[in-house]
Amino acid sequence: xxxxxxxxxxxxxxxxxxxxxxxxxxxxxxxxxxxxxxxxxxxxxxxxxxxxxxxxxxxxxxxxxxxxxxxxxxxxxxxxxxxxxxxxxxxxxxxxxxxxxxxxxxxxxxxxxxxxxxxxxxxxxxxxxxxxxxxxxxxxxxxxxxxxxxxxxxxxxxxxxxxxxxxxxxxxxxxxxxxxxxxxxxxxxxxxxxxxxxxxxxxxxxxxxxxxxxxxxxxxxxxxxxxxxxxxxxxxxxxxxxxxxxxxxxxxxxxxxxxxxxxxxxxxxxxxxxxxxxxxxxxxxxxxxxxxxxxxxxxxxxxxxxxxxxxxxxxxxxxxxxxxxxxxxxxxxxxxxxxxxxxxxxxxx
Length: 349
Prior knowledge:
The longest helix is centred in the middle third of the chain and has 20 residues, at 140-159. The chain is an alpha/beta fold. The radius of gyration is 20 Å and the shape is globular. The protein has helices at 6-22, 33-39, 94-100, 114-121, 140-159, 171-182, 206-213, 215-223, 234-245, 248-262, 270-277, 286-298, 308-315, and strands spanning 45-50, 56-62, 73-77, 104-108, 164-169, 190-196, 227-228, 284-285, 330-333. α1 (6-22) packs antiparallel against α9 (234-245), α1 (6-22) crosses α10 (248-262) and α8 runs antiparallel to α12.
């Protein structure tokens, strides 16, 4: 792998930092999934879902590919720091492939990302963003127990099917496992679960050694923010980042950075790279990152560790609970990313 041009990378970092703290915009100006779906000529629906703990979620739906025949529902769940655009970035993206194959495609956005964030931080067109309208006190546990269960129930009711298929990428796989572990009754509502680079175990990952060595520093850094990257206006930040990477002198550094973050070396053209940086990184709560660090350092997929006393109140033990493997769904693994944080996906807990 070629190294990043450090001079350009520093320039990107400084410019992005200025954008994060000093830019604002009104409503949504960056690339979103709805734009891409309409651009490629597919029918679009958007839906709002409220969870039991009052999180506001947004779903995009491609009910068919224009032939008016609505097939079996499939839910696509994105990875960390991303949103549903990863499944709709170009004409050959998974959402369109599945739609052409006859599926009723639903695109999930975790709370605080993509359409879910837009519905939460803006009061309406013309309003300025307010990131404090989102509660950032959640990890992948809440996403599995509250978000995914609410989304599954909503889709099944809307589609009038008794089961759906799920494709989970990275974080999406973790959320699926949590749901099926803590809410085992949802096994009966999932037909097939396909996993792409599931981020559930990190035993052989080089990230493990780094996380263990610098765990105290990482914890202090995360304690300073409710979400990462911290910005008053993610949409303007992403729009500015796209413009920055469009500069010919910066473009290759942006492309190589994407290769490192994505864990792959795909032959992306310039438009694909710019589309990627228009939607990545999405804000992620510090608590979710802490939860992943706990999984890495303890080599166990467990509930969030709140400390001895709070664990006793929540779990009636001092260390927290492991997620019980109660998966009765047909599970299919696809590939593992070469990015170290996604290794050992075949070992779930």
